[in-house]
């Protein structure tokens, strides 16, 4: 909830409580005076909050609009607009937006860009591309960076489908509306790639090269475009051409290394990070890349380089050396490094990693004793004590000891009652075992203590949608999560999935495409493929199944989708 609305709600509740304490019984029975906006808006505001907590977005939008009208408050009108858009209640969204605009006139400029973004989103929802273009153009002409960023968000997350988003983006390029800022052009170029529009992406890259000659970040966009077009050798050539420019620029080195990583060229990514001055972050990233590449020779060389400077008892360096030794499976050395971390915040992760190493060495009894010692030591940082229970549970699972795993969770919850991280981990454990009632119970315990926990709302909603037939209940939970984070790809994916379960396949497809545009994820791709298969668009479905396989061949969602469809 926006801070302004939180403030209003607290103010109204405080006012109501004060009135209740001061009023005589006769006065308390009478309604508030007609000219009291606070009193008139309190009831619908509370009704709106209760409706939101129940995941009933249509009722919440109506109540918030009533509250905004009663209080003449722009923040409440904005809230009503956003909830109505989420509820796909275009009539009420239009009414709330009109009220928001009229109230915002008393604060010139305060809400101008947010209003334009809402206008554009509503126009897109109505299929009125012409009106949307007008509002987007106004946003792009706004000074500073907020306008174009809002326009980017509207196109990326507010369009009904990728085709509509691509038309709008092409219009912006045709009319030269994107502001002359490198970051803006790079962002819109990235959007074209995510929308799977290679021709449009090529146009944007060409324009960026013309406008910003010699800028290395343009080369990164070009390399990314070539990678998406399955031209890895050409992408590598582009990256190699700008590598020398990154020697004195740590941010650029990281960006180039990230592109190499996405190309699957982990050795080149590590070599890029090795250029120029080094710090703990670059060393750690290099070690991680070399470990993933299984390049033990290069990793051993890096380990020796780090070890030459380890005489000084630097906690960060010794922790890193322990981690590299673990990668190299030099577990005795790793254990010595972890035990040699002298103090500081690195001490606690070193102790936890040490327990993990003991387990890898086959010294399980010592590993579990070190964890129980941590759990019982009141001097240990609270987060480390909690994590000791989580690590113990993970190691018990690895030992195929489900009773021991559950016992670790139970003891953790006895020491940290209703700790959300432990409850969440146990819920996932129950879900893996197909014990959905217990998984649900733990997620609901989180929500009792933290009713607005987006992670728990989304996890419970998705679990009910995926593993039960309680689809309406799942939708209400996911809608609560959407209200808090409307542009979260994981939540949009959950929303699309429950719509599919409800038989609303075309709506589901829109949401899942939006989610995949925001985040290339194997589970989202698998969901897209299954919905497309249900719509008998089998060729396109196979394309997304293949995308999911490339991203994560072990994805449980992919395996279930393939088994169900026979693709």
Automatic annotation (TrEMBL):
Top-level taxonomic group: Bacteria
InterPro entries the record matches: TPR-like_helical_dom_sf, TPR_rpt
SMART domains: TPR
Keywords: Signal, TPR repeat
TPR repeats (start-end): 522-555
Signal peptide bounds: 1-28
Protein name: Tetratricopeptide repeat protein
